[in-house]
C-alpha cells in the first residue's frame, strides 16, 4: 500500500500545517511509514504553496509525490500550476469550490466548500484548511478521524482549539453527506 497526497494553495491558508498534521497523525499507525515535504514561493503569504505526504507500508525512498492518489486544491493559481501532475485514471482531485470554480478535463473530482463554510458557519476563513482535512480524512486514511481530531487539538493554538475542532467536525459531516 502506498498513498500519495498533495495539498496545495497559497501561503497563509495553512497548507503546510495540513501536511504536518497528517504526518503527525500517521505516527499513531506504527505499521505505516510517512514522509512530508513542503515548498512555497518567495512570498510566505500569497505565494504558491504545496506540501506532499506519502504514506506506505514499505520503506519510502523519495519523500515527494510522483503519482498522486489525492490532490487537494485550495486556490485557482495552484490548480492552474499543478493540475497537470494529476493522472485522470488514478488521481482524485479535491478542490475548494469557493476558490476554485472548476476542474477542466476528465478527472474524478470532489468539490468541498471549505472557505465558504468557514466564512459562513464560523465567521473565520482561517479554519478552511481544517474543514478540508475533515472532509478528506476518509480519502487519506479511512477510520482515523478520532486520531486526526486529537492531533488537530495538539497542533493549533489553545485559544482556537474549539473553533478548529468544530470546523474539522463540520468538514467530516460534509464528507459523510457527499461522499465522492
Which range does the strand content fall in?
Answer: 15-25%
Span of the ends, CA to CA: 21 Å
- Helical percentage: 25-40%
Rg to the nearest angstrom? 15 Å
Count all strands and give the number.
6
Stretches with pLDDT under 50, minimum 5 residues = none
Number of helices: 6
CATH topology: Pyruvate-ferredoxin Oxidoreductase, domain 3
> What structural class do you assign from the helix and strand content?
alpha/beta
Describe the sheet with the most strands: 6 strands, mixed
The CATH superfamily is Pyruvate-ferredoxin oxidoreductase, PFOR, domain III
Largest beta sheet: strand ordering: 2-3-1-4-5-6
- CATH class, named Alpha Beta
SSE order? EHEEEHEEHHHH
Count of domain modules? 1
So what's the overall shape?
globular
- Rounded average pLDDT: 92
CATH architecture: 3-Layer(aba) Sandwich
Structural account:
The protein has 180 residues and is an alpha/beta fold. The protein has a single domain (2-178), classed as Pyruvate-ferredoxin Oxidoreductase, domain 3, CATH 3.40.920. Helices cover 39% and strands 22% of the residues. It has six helices and six strands, in the order E-H-E-E-E-H-E-E-H-H-H-H. A six-stranded mixed beta sheet has the order 2-3-1-4-5-6, with helices on both faces. Helix 1 (15-26) crosses helix 5, helix 4 packs across helix 6 (161-178) and helix 5 (145-155) runs antiparallel to helix 6 (161-178). The radius of gyration is 15 Å and the shape is globular. It starts with a strand and ends with a helix.
Amino acid at each position: 500500500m502506498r498513498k500519495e497526497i498533495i495539498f496545495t494553495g497559497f501561503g497563509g491558508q495553512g497548507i503546510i500545517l495540513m501536511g504536518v498534521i497528517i504526518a503527525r497523525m500517521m505516527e499513531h499507525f506504527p505499521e505505516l511509514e510517512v514522509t512530508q515535504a513542503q515548498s512555497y514561493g518567495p512570498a510566505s503569504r500569497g505565494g504558491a504553496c504545496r506540501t506532499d505526504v506519502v504514506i506506505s507500508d514499505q520503506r519510502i525512498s523519495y519523500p515527494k509525490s510522483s503519482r498522486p492518489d489525492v490532490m487537494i486544491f485550495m486556490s485557482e493559481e495552484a490548480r492552474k500550476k499543478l493540475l497537470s501532475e494529476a493522472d485522470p485514471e488514478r488521481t482524485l482531485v479535491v478542490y475548494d469550490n469557493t476558490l476554485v470554480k472548476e476542474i477542466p478535463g476528465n478527472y474524478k473530482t470532489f468539490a468541498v466548500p471549505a472557505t465558504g463554510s468557514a466564512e459562513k458557519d464560523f465567521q473565520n476563513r482561517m479554519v478552511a484548511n481544517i474543514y478540508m482535512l475533515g472532509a478528506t480524512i476518509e480519502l487519506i486514511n479511512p477510520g482515523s478521524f478520532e486520531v486526526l481530531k486529537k492531533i488537530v487539538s495538539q497542533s493549533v493554538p489553545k485559544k482556537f482549539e474549539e473553533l478548529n475542532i468544530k470546523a474539522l467536525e463540520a468538514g467530516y459531516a460534509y464528507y459523510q453527506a457527499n461522499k465522492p
